[in-house]
Amino acid sequence: MERPDAGGLNSNNCENIARKEEISGELEANAMDSLINIPLATIDIRDDCGITDAPPINSKRSKENEEIKNDQVKKRKRKQKDYQPNYFLSIPITNKEIIGGLKSLQKAIIQQDKQLSKAMVGDGSFHITLLVMQLLNEDEINIGIDALWELKPHVEELLQGKHLTLPFQGIDTFRSQVGFVKLEEGDHINLLLEIAETAKQTFQEKGILAGENRSFKPHLTFMKLSKAPVLRKNGVKKIDPELYEKFINHRFGEEVLHRIDLCSMQKKKRSDGYYHCESSIMIGKKPIGIQDLINEAVHQERMNLKSKVKQIKELLLKPEIQAKIRRELLEEIFINKSNQANNVDFIAALI
């Protein structure tokens, strides 16, 4: 009978132990790799929920963070250089008296020069542009929607419970290329300028590229030659003042600010001719239509979702939760590796 060695193990047992030690070593190495790669180590919490990042663990990590910040600054500068607005805040014109006057004006101009019909703004698109901005993807659009809803209480605070009435009278142009109805002089202009500046600050604080270098001049566009490039080829390079001479001092009516829309310049317009609208806020009164009710419901749902996301992120930052997740991950890895070792033993036994 073969005598066992001093350790009481035969060659097969030694081989199995060596194999299990090898698996154990792999388990430890894989576990450490998994811990390094799990999302908890790099959770991005610098978002609109207002949670800040944990302090850097070491100087190397701090240096990496600084490089990332510098790269983000460079990207932001490149974005500013390539800034092309594709969204805007719109105050829609809904007063039928104003719309009727604009259509009469357009008709009078077209009667004098039919080819100018291509330069006219559709009657469903009449609006005042409050702010232009660049939103490049769905994430940025969602940030823009959030900014719009954050703007609502600021606007209502500026109005102090009063209505903002915008009276329109007279015609003017921008460099004889864009024809618009003027906003009458008065305190309402200063208030509208304040709202526009507040909107600009609100969106820029969200990291959105917004605004223009030129000063804001509220106006109601009814025609622009750039809508029909063929006009220039046909010799129409300017809007002749004689075309709108009869309306030079015409009073078009008053529009009360009741809604601000976040609209796309590029997406397909609605069936009524108005711009594609991502979201709207009602100013100074409760929702009055189905779409307004939908907007309010969607906003409320977004706010609830954001609150839940914030709670989850705060929970994931707690050391005891991170320790529990790491422990469960280690156990899962150990179980998987143990199953693999058992399969190896089983296969070896069969052989």
Mind explaining what this structure looks like?
The protein is α+β, with helices and mostly antiparallel strands and 351 residues long. It is 49% helix and 16% strand. It has eight helices and nine strands. Strands 5-2-1-8-9 form a five-stranded antiparallel sheet. Helix 1 runs antiparallel to helix 8. It is elongated, with a radius of gyration of 33 Å. The N terminus is likely disordered.
Largest sheet: 5 strands, antiparallel
Low-confidence stretches: 1-14, 31-57
Tally of DSSP β-strands: 9
Question: What is the strand content?
Answer: 15-25%
Helix share bin:
40-55%
> Mean pLDDT, as a whole number?
79
How large is the count of helical segments?
Answer: 8
The Rg value, from CA coordinates, equals: 33 Å
Strands of the largest sheet, in order across it? 5-2-1-8-9
**Strand-and-helix sequence, N→C?**
HHEHEHEEHEEHEEEHH
Report the span from N to C terminus: 24 Å
State the secondary-structure class. alpha+beta
Shape: elongated
